[in-house]
Design brief:
Length: 280
Amino acid sequence: MAKLNYGKYEIPERLKQIIELQQHLNEVDQLKYGDLLGYYFSDEGISARYLNTPLDVIPFARPGVDGIHFGFLTDFGQVKDLYDAYIVRVSPMDFDNPVHVVARNIEDFISTICFYPDSMEILDMTSLRKEVLEFLCHNPMIPKETMLTNQEYNIHRIVCEKFQLKPIGNFENYFYLLHQQRGLDAILPTLDHIGVVKKEEATKASLNNIILLNLKNKDEITLPEVKSFFETAVYEAKLVFLRDGYSKGLLWDQEDIKLFLSEHLLLMDLPDEAESIFYP
């Protein structure tokens, strides 16, 4: 099931190391609840997906509440190595806006949960600079022994030493730059603000008059609508539909639509996504 989840990708070495450390600390009874820095890391199976987990996200960590999970954004297979993939937070219970980019890569994710752990629940790519500054005013950087129990402080020290972690420099500017970089990467906007990145042959100018299927105010969608759209839509417009359809939770119980999309994804040379679409 993990192989289905990862598809063509290898599990990043850094994630393997985190999982191994978590397992070791559990074996020596150092983790009170089994989590590492508030997260349960694993090489998740494909069944770990939720109704609004994007097709091109591979989950790898969860805090253990409300189905919230974090994953690698593959940009529909265009990321070469998951080590370089953006990290997204998926909050299944937040039906209006469940998906957010929260870190540039797994290294930044680990550093952030180590030094500013609460930021992963509060901040994301869309956060304004003043919101980040307000967060920092109320959440000083860890570690401070007065903020942690002895056991927590010890775990924090072990993780920092093991992975040679350092705080992200200029943290208040980090999310602004994250937003800026993703804006440069994305060629078309999506409802979740993540956007769709361009393929090598595409340019923003070539997509100026692109026709999209607007799902913003839709509560449901039908197979004839999807078929009609896919008959004429360009490649990138189809990716926008897939991202918006999942963000809105419109596809998870539509078996006829998912079957059609799975067949079409194979034609688009997206075999991993064609498999993922059936989970859940």
